[in-house]
């Protein structure tokens, strides 16, 4: 069905024309009794006097013979905002105002017309030929008796001729259509005035200024302008004039007198001559009409600014009285009391309007627009609150207020005005809803939808938006009503597609499926309003089962035996239709979910959509949609979701729903029950990892998480000790756990879990508890002792000790011979270089590092664990150092292991270190020295400052170095004894007393062997002696001053 563009609606009825004017110069602000916009009651005439004789007929009156009956009446109309200006046949302007008035017993506003004033043009009883308003400059222009007069808007007060003089001798005038709705940069509007033999171009602003004159020998009857192009017509032909180039182009002949006898008329003694008609189409494009009154065909020709015919041609059955353009339509008033509407693009007639009997049409014009109440919208767009099934009627929405606000959109602007002898009508753009609803009511659903689609396409083509305003409600109404009508025919896919287009709240659709609605929390159901016509259908349509049953009953009863309720064919058909309905509603809900998640995430409607989708997908074999819904953030109603998923035995999906809602305790309860086979769900895989990850990553650090971690952490310990202990260490609330309580229970799970947790406490959290350090050391010792139960590990270590001793002996020999050798390393560093030999070595290094670094453990307790292991010499040496049993420690290092470097390091550090697990060579490789001065300075800055030794530490170092020297002097190998002793004296001799050293050194050693040490010792002694003298002298000098201050 083709969209009907226009509808005729009365704007002003029974306009009373006063045949006698008031006294000269009067402006009568007479107010008529208010009447509704659509009233057909006559009002009393304003005056009742006879009119004087009309002026003699001339050429102008002859051309008006087709549009005037010679009786008093309306001759010109113009509109702007809520002002209506009516020009009469006796030289008056009637000024009406259309205004809103709230009715006492209605929420919808009513509109009345009020006669604001009656203006006498003071030009005699002459016809008002044309009214033009120019809102851009707040002025109006009237052509009457070949005179242009000027007035102010909106009250039509005459402008004194001393300011703007009248322009006389005018045959026609026009404004520049290119300036429609705009104003020039200088604040003026262009005006074109045609006189008898001249074209005058004016600019009108505060004043009227003549800018240019062009000769026009034959004058003109009508004119139109767009930019620099004028299209005009005289009594012989149409012409195009370029006012910039001062050039004229002849087009086609204008209508001429009709041959043969014509009915006489006192106004047209010379016969009927059709008035030439011109309309502006667009940018320098015009429409001119060719033909005569009685010709069978009249054509309209489109021409451009150079006179070339473009597009196609228009055709009418008779010569029009008037034409006007409202893109993309051309509207023509014909002599047969009809109005034809043609499409500019294809020149086809798309609508014909027949006028009612008794209407005497006089003209058609395009005004600036006036607002008109569209009656057809009122009854269709009224909204009421919808109530779901199984609920009491709802009344918590102020629908009266909604409808009152919506009713303001029923005011439709119209620019096309049809004026008759005593009334004015508007050609309203026909509300699409009026036509479409009529089609829907006659079950022409496809045609109604097609009409809505066409209106939507036209709106898009014009750059409009459906997002708001009246057109959105119109389209929504049509799509919603059509969708429910299709739904009644079980055309589910088409129905839900239209309902989605119509923006119906999905809650209404969900309510059709009882098992998909929210049952537990009715507060999640949103408040919904529906259009009155749509709500009637929804109230009567029932549930989806009722729709299917009615459809089967209508199509198959009584043809199916025994009846449609029990026949196997209809039973199967019912099952298939219901299944199709669920499939279609699932697709619909997915579309709506994307829409509402974008625009109204978290709303009640989103809760209904997600809950319905969950219920639909829970019963399907394909769980893709179900898991996609529950894994991601959703708005499902949890109570209804639990019931649906438990009934469908979708336990893992339910746990994921719990998870998205932050109900972690319920998640873990469900997962542990599935893992323990209390509940069965094959979709739950890698369960222990999921439980561990949730406890570690999802639970927050609040106190509320502690009971959950303790409960399910110990459950996890029973199933996977490594995962369980990770939870106690890595959970965000781990700091809030009772570590001693956890350690107490971890002992029952073996050494490894407790050891891991102790490492976390000591090395991760930096615990200073002696018990934690002692237990960790004992745990390490237990691992070492367990490894030593394997004879292979013992043999590996014995061989390592033997190889180290050989390496030390060879290095000592070369150093003694001064042939050079690689730097000696400690036994611990040697072990670190050979960790790949055995895991046993790695275990020992781990224990050694802890014993050497930690000062919080109890050495006696750890030593008790190691007494039975003779091979653990280094461990015992460190523990002896912690117990200040330095002699036993140094004996192990020097006599059992030949770790002389470790022994000297032991003395230097006061028994705290026997070496590191990284050699000096490794350090150098890992951080090569830089040759740049800047790098050297940076390295020097990075060096830590050496702490100043206390007297106790100095004494302890002296004692340790002396003890080590005595052990060196007891070495049986003479060369080794001499080398190690001299090395110790050269490096640590400053801490030794010279006299004690000389007592210990063998007499047979030559002096040159200890020459370096002796020089250092003598220099030190001399330095101390001189320093003592200086201190003594300073003290004596300061003594009198100190005594004087006392």
UniProtKB/TrEMBL annotation:
Chief localisation class: cytoplasm
A GO cellular-component term linked to this record: cytoplasm
Localization in the cell: Cytoplasm
Chain ranges of the CNH domain: 71-368
Region: Disordered, residue numbers: 17-65, 917-942
Biased composition (Polar residues): 27-50
Biological process (GO), any one: endosomal vesicle fusion
Short name of any one Pfam family annotated for the protein: CNH
Descriptive protein name: CNH domain-containing protein
Matches recorded under PANTHER family: CNH DOMAIN CONTAINING (PTHR12894), TRANSFORMING GROWTH FACTOR-BETA RECEPTOR-ASSOCIATED PROTEIN 1 (PTHR12894:SF27)
Keywords, alphabetical: Cytoplasm, Protein transport, Transport
